[in-house]
Specification:
By secondary structure, this protein is an alpha+beta fold. It is elongated. The strands form ten sheets. A five-stranded antiparallel beta sheet has the order 1-3-7-5-6, with no helix packed on it. Helix 7 links the parallel strand 19 and strand 20. The protein has 13 helices and 32 strands. It starts with 12 loop residues before the first helix and ends in a 10-residue tail after the last strand.
């Protein structure tokens, strides 16, 4: 609340007593609520209108200076990037720093403004010029709320200097008007500890007369990307080595680069090269924070949100390689062990594009995550608390009990659309997948191989036929179960968003329950059933080390023993990458070939084509599919974040 101390024309005793009780010193008449230039009353201004200009001449920035809402109020950035790359990743002896020490260093961890790029991350605060302030007057500043999570600077002599309890503004500075800069030192993690707000108070003393004014800012919300934001760059792990699987994975990276260029994305791939974790979707979720900078230009900082999987070393490369100018990293680890480790992967976090429905608005979109409804297991509480605390993308939980890996990207996606809403839901459709097989069987193609993928050294091609697949004791039942689960999740999405059946793109899919294969040491490794891996196949060793199987191995399956868990049988088409408003990259289907055409490829392409998307395909069978993931699981995207998040699309 705006306060002016000691400046009320009616010095009624009760009023003075109340002000004194609140910490005010009342000795002279109160000025108008918003002092005009030339008065002797303290008046601070911030960019409440979010246009990049702090108005000290008029009153366009006075409304809302003591409050904050999604649509109005001053925004500051969490200055957690490393503009000059000063943060070390090793200690003086060359030993890698701990996760905690890696995260502790950023531009807000010191009391300096590290160059012009760092200065651009400061939200501006200005004092209205006090032309009539007398000699001997002085001003002081204090962050009265949020001081632990902010740093305040004063621009003096062309340089930014930290504001301390000893800082005094001179009469000359007060007459000219002073510029301040403020940064947050972190994002909101738990509103019980900090709600993201900072209150800055200016107090001006001239003899026995004291006036003060205060303004409120809030740290920019940490937001995840949605598919209406243009893809600007793609990230992928490049696994080193000369083994068969490693060469296949390196080929995947090369082919991915070609597809990205064909989609009109000219920035080179960002490759993770150090830790060999191929699941680039899972150890990081690209996010962003933004405010309007001077001149109306959006000041955007990318924030890499590390998965709450502290034993997943690949997340360290975010600090070691990706963090830099306008790129920060956030990690939030639960103190207790995860309920289900795989649920904490970021493939289990997707974002519904902006929408408004039933009196609720999500101008920056809304997060979805999977949980195991059958057992009550949920993703990291620390991450969920942090995401909800941002106040804009309140996470919605969908049931992934029926999926071995348990990620939402295995069955649902959001597609750009030239419609009033601007997007559609893409959903895996197991019933459509079964229909493709049944129709082919009825047409006399039951003896056709279920999969057209060629074998590789030490791993023969799958031998099952359409007849054998449909005769499987489990395949039909498991897909009917998957269809019911998917429909239940779709009902939730339709209820929450208002999406209609006409806005749903149904993409043929098939799922299969886990089978077991034996690695060369004799240990059993879960693999998609019916793939005919063969006993002690060398590829099984690779899946144990590189596939999602590595993360499933330590899971206690006792809780979920009654739940049939599945993964993609035919490569999951919805588990692909939206590269543009009309470009989609899907995993190559390798389905049955009838009359020279892959029936799954034809059906998938037709489904996306009806939605206005051109589909290209990338082979991920041996690199990701048999490891219980697809193209989307092995990649990640950086998207344009220049739009004002408070305005929607």
């Amino acid at each position: 609340m705006r306060t002016r101390t000691g400046i009320r024309r009616n010095p009624a005793g009760p009023v003075i007593a109340a002000l004194v009780a609140a910490g005010a010193v009342c000795v002279t008449p109160l000025s108008p609520a918003h002092a005009a230039p030339g008065t002797t009353s303290a008046d601070l201004r911030v960019d409440t209108g979010r246009d990049g200009r702090v108005d000290v001449q008029g009153t366009t920035d006075t409304a809302g200076e003591d409050s904050w809402s999604t649509g109005r109020g001053a925004v500051m950035l969490p200055n957690i990037d490393d503009d000059t790359k000063r943060c070390r990743t090793k200690d003086a002896k060359g030993k890698p720093l701990s996760d905690a020490r890696l995260a502790a260093c950023n531009d807000a961890s010191d009391t300096k403004v590290n160059g012009s790029a760092d200065a651009a991350d400061l939200a501006r605060i200005r004092s209205v010029p006090m032309a009539k302030v007398p000699k001997g007057a002085h001003g002081s500043l204090k962050v009265t709320a949020g001081a632990k999570y902010t740093r305040l600077f004063l621009k003096r002599g062309g340089a930014w200097v930290p504001v301390t309890a000893k800082t005094r503004l001179t009469p000359k500075e007060l007459r000219a008007g002073v510029e301040f800069g403020i940064e947050a030192t972190d994002v909101i993690r738990d509103p019980k500890k900090w709600d993201g707000r900072a209150v800055v108070r200016l107090t001006v003393t001239a003899g026995k007369r004291t006036t003060s004014d205060q303004v409120t800012l809030r740290v920019a919300p940490l937001l995840t990307h949605h598919h209406l934001q243009k893809a600007q760059q793609v990230m992928v792990t490049r696994v080193p080595g000369k083994g068969q699987w490693e060469r296949l994975q390196q080929k995947f990276v090369r082919e991915l680069g070609k597809e990205v260029k064909r989609a009109g994305i000219n920035q080179p791939l960002i490759t993770f090269d150090k830790y060999g974790d191929p699941w680039a979707q899972d150890f990081v979720e690209p996010a962003y924070v933004s405010m309007t900078g001077p001149g109306g230009r959006r000041q955007v900082m990318r924030v890499m949100l590390r998965s709450d999987q502290r034993d997943r070393e690949a997340g360290r490369e975010l600090f070691e390689k990706v963090r830099g100018r306008n790129v920060g990293v956030v990690q939030a680890f639960d103190r207790s062990g995860p309920e289900d480790w795989t649920l904490n992967s970021m493939g289990n976090l997707e974002t519904i594009p902006p929408y408004a429905h039933a009196g609720r608005s999500y101008p920056a979109g809304r997060i979805i995550q999977g949980w195991r409804k059958d057992t009550g297991e949920k993703p990291s509480k620390a991450v969920r608390t942090m995401l909800k605390a941002q106040g804009l993308q309140d996470p919605l939980l969908l049931d992934t009990s029926w999926l071995s890996v348990g990620h939402v990207d295995e069955f649902v996606q959001f597609l750009p659309a030239g419609t009033p809403r601007g997007w559609r839901i893409g959903i895996a459709d197991p019933q459509a997948g079964l229909k493709l097989l049944r129709d082919a069987q009825k047409a006399g193609h039951g003896k056709t191989k279920m999969f057209s993928v060629p074998g590789i050294k030490g791993q023969p091609a799958p031998k099952e036929t359409i007849d054998k697949a449909l005769a499987s004791r489990h395949l039909v039942a498991d897909n009917e179960m998957a269809a019911r689960r998917i429909e239940a999740n779709l009902a939730i999405l339709k209820r929450e968003t208002g999406v209609t059946d006409a806005e749903v793109v149904r993409v043929p899919a098939l799922y299969t329950r886990d089978g077991e294969a034996t690695d060369t040491s004799g240990d059993e490794v879960p693999v998609p059933r019916l793939t005919r891996m063969g006993g002690k196949a060398p590829l099984v060793d690779t899946l144990r080390e590189r596939g999602q199987q590595r993360w499933l191995a330590g899971r206690d399956g006792g809780k979920a023993a009654k739940t049939v868990m599945t993964s993609a049988y035919v490569p999951g088409a919805v588990n692909g990458v939206v590269l543009g408003p009309d470009r989609y990259l899907a995993p190559r289907q390798w389905g049955p070939v009838v009359a020279g055409k892959d029936i799954f490829t034809e059906a998938v392409s037709a489904a996306y084509r009806r939605a206005g998307l051109k589909v290209s395909y990338l082979d991920d069978w041996y690199t990701y599919h048999l490891g219980m993931g697809e193209v989307h699981c092995g990649t990640n995207t950086l998207r344009d974040a220049n739009a004002a998040w408070w305005k929607g699309r």
